[in-house]
Design a protein that fits this description.
7 helices, SP1917_dom_sf, UCP033199, 117 residues, globular, Helicase, Ruva Protein, domain 3, mainly alpha, DUF2200 domain-containing protein, single chain, two-stranded antiparallel ribbon
Length: 117
Amino acid sequence: MKNSEKIYKMSVAGVYPYYVGKAERKGRSREEVDEIICWLTGYGKDELKAILESDINFETFFRQAPEIHPNASKIKGIICGYRVEEIEDEIVQKVRYLDKLIDELAKGKSMEKILRK
């Protein structure tokens, strides 16, 4: 994937408003976006708040994540033209997992399905 370096360096706080905006335009909430991010990464709400007030990039965000949810491997499908389960770069794959989950939220899926319960 050619954009790996660009994705690594993107600020989490810079992308977050787009996630929230996409969710809210479809009648979903910032709280649901936060729940998805915390579920995927293992960060708590306070940790996420601190990250969003900093300039942490996606590479650092995912490398320092307490625990990627064991059910993350159940996230499948196409996002940005790539099949997420086939992305070889682990950081890019995790970013695309998050993109996919936010996409599912915006498409009206239940939180139970999004969080692979």
